[in-house]
Amino acid sequence: MANYLVTSARLAGYSPGDVVSDADLEGSNIDALIEAGHISTQTPKKPAKPKDIETEE
Amino acid sequence: MATSVYLSNPNVTINSVVLQDQCRSATLNYVYEQLETTSFGDTARKFGGSSVTSLQNNSIELELYQSYAASETEATIYGLVGIQTTIILAPATGAASATNPIYTLTGAYLESHTPINASLGELSTITLTFTGGTLTKAVS
């Protein structure tokens, strides 16, 4: 099952930034949605963990 | 007398993309092909019957304002030519109900599209005809 990032405000029932699966888009042509810029194969990246900064005294 | 006047927010969704604000007319034709079942002894033509099921031959015609902006009409429609998709039409947005039936045409085929339909001084529109597919009606 593939996931897609919603990239436009026109995808029915979703907002930009949501993640949808191909099951959510059943009956729709996913290639056309990607080509039109409504979804992207790029899924959201997790925020990087902050690095611990050690200070020398 | 109850009638329907489309002045507000019909639901028009093409390939999961909401385009109601670009749509100015929508026509859904729900058709079962006519099969003749007239036989000897009949005095008039007959078509269909309780045990005869013909093929659906549905179509949807939509007139949309053309827009070349990102995620708008042209971007959404261009990639649908020559393939099947799903179209959803309803008299209003919101949940399906007896007074707001939601019609879904699954497997509809778009044969052609007119990317440029321009006349001086007029808003550009496109007319799309989706054919085929299976129609379902949801009322709840």
Helix residue percentage of chain A: 10-25%
Rg measurement of chain A, Å: 17 Å
The stretches of 5 or more residues of chain A where confidence is low (pLDDT under 50) are: none
Discrete helix count of chain B: 1
Assign the CATH topology of chain B.
Answer: Elongation Factor Tu (Ef-tu), domain 3
What about the largest sheet of chain A?
3 strands, antiparallel
Residues in β-strands, percent of chain A: 15-25%
Order of helices and strands of chain B: EEEEHEEEE
CATH 2nd-level architecture of chain B: Beta Barrel
Structural class of chain B: mainly beta
Mean of pLDDT of chain A: 87
- How many domains is the backbone of chain B divided into? 1
Describe it.
- The complex is a heterodimer of chains A (57) and B (140).
- Chain A is of the alpha+beta class.
- Chain A has a domain at 3-40.
- Chain A contains 1 helix and 3 strands, in the order E-E-H-E.
- In chain A, strands 2-1-3 form a 3-stranded antiparallel β-sheet.
- Chain A is elongated and about 60 Å long.
- In chain B, strands 1, 2, 3, 4, 5, 6, 7 and 8 form an 8-stranded antiparallel β-sheet that branches.
- The chains are: A alpha+beta (57), B mainly beta (140).
- The A-B interface holds A 7-12, 25, 27-29, 31-33, 35-38 and B 13, 15-19, 70-71, 75-76, 78-80, 83-86, 88, 106-107.
Topology at a glance:
The complex is a heterodimer of chains A (57) and B (140).
Chain A: E1 3-6, E2 19-21, H1 30-36, E3 39-40
Antiparallel strand pairs in A: 1-2, 1-3
Chain B: E1 11-14, E2 17-18, E3 23-29, E4 59-65, H1 73-78, E5 84-90, E6 102-110, E7 125-131, E8 134-138
Antiparallel strand pairs in B: 1-2, 1-5, 3-4, 4-7, 5-6, 6-7, 6-8
